[in-house]
Amino acid sequence: MKPGEAAPSNRRMSYNIDTVHLLEPCDARIKHSDVEALLERLEDDLPEGCFLHDLAEAGPGEDGMVEIVDLDWTGEGSGNSFRGHFSEVAALVVGRLEAILVWEGGDSTTGLRIVDGKMTTPEVIQTLAPEDPC
Length: 134
Fold this sequence. Notes:
Elements: E1 17-23, E2 29-31, H1 32-42, E3 49-50, H2 51-58, E4 65-67, E5 73-74, H3 78-84, H4 86-90, E6 96-103, E7 109-115, E8 118-120
Antiparallel strand pairs: 1-6, 2-4, 3-5, 6-7, 7-8
Helix pairs in contact: 1-2
């Protein structure tokens, strides 16, 4: 089974996300009231590690928005909830963020890009930086 694919049959085993690396620069924000509404509606379906809890605690700025500085979506239930509910969260994001999700065991990665509520999962390409001259 590939990351992002549903498990066969009626039982949906979660292939969980171990780590999310938020890439710089990131200028993404979300309305604090939307965060609170998502937490209330999705609480039982959110993963063990979920950045929405931190955003709720941060409180809104003067404009009612909260800046996304971490994108924790990890642990138990993160795979199924990423496929099921993360797009609902992404739809409410204003600005741009890019991240790399490392799936259980580190055997695969998924790219994540959100631009003004539109979520895509681009291919992740890894390269080494050029050597510094001595």
